[in-house]
Amino acid sequence: MFQPDKSRYQKMAYRRCGNSGLLLPEISLGLWHNFGGVDVFENGRAMVRHAFDNGITHFDLANNYGPPPGSAEENFGRILKKDFGGYLRDELVISTKAGYHMWNGPYGEWGSRKYLLSSLDQSLKRMKLDYVDIFYSHRPDPDTPMEETMGALASALSSGKALYVGLSNYDATQTLKALDILDQLGIKCLIHQPKYSMFVRDAENGLLDLLKERGVGCIPYSPLAQGLLTDRYLSGIPDNSRAAKSHGFLQKEDVSDDKISRVIQLKTIADQRGQSISQLALAWILRHQNITTVLIGASSVEQLNHNLQTLQNTQFDAAALSAIENILA
Fold first, then answer.
1. How far apart are CA 73 and CA 88, in angstroms?
2. pLDDT at site 241
3. Domains of the chain (ranges plus CATH)?
């Protein structure tokens, strides 16, 4: 029987999610990679347990996480049953999403009411849960009226199958429209999940300011640019790396000479701070006070623990920030 560390909440700092009553850990664990049917179940289970022992209460999933799609939710459901029964469920914030392709036919992706609510039901069955804490629209649908997509999120709330709703991959203009529609429905958007890292900074083009203005939390994903912002690729592409996997999202061509050159320069700053490149990259995101939590992935307990050590130093002086900007420019 799993007995969580009694000091777990002393190991983690928590930030308020926008203007809500919900606190989230500064680092959250995403199950996008390394928790699917192609992965070793006990490795994923060990990472979830270690995360919770260190104060990570938020676990982020989506219907299509795996591979194969759905298997990350199934495996997480097995972990919950084995290790997080009874009162421990109430100490977890579990999220899932729907928007990307999940099953064949015209109702298996995008943003229709039919797809979103069917997907939520399927996710709950896979995880053997009565509800999720956060249900996201995973991406905007160019062909479905946004009123329908936001209405589906409202139905997820009213049914009790979700406690909060969120948006992911919506740009600033799309987010503003979605927030206005939700406001008209009397619903508060809890959180937004954009892709954001030193190498992908689109969120700075109005989105972060909008979220702050409207009191919406922010949880960036891919903060390490799929592993580019680590020391993993400084000497080429390792055989067991994400870029070498046929089912991965990081392609070999993404590991460009230009990006590796920038990572090498960032390493100099990280070394001066007594951090690794990945710790520097995570701390750089967490320096924003309007960032609620940063969403990390992990392939091992050791890697997870290494990234948790980021929290020992998240402060930057003006000189360090300027040096980083010069590298990234």
1. 18
2. 55
3. 8-234+278-315 (3.20.20.100)
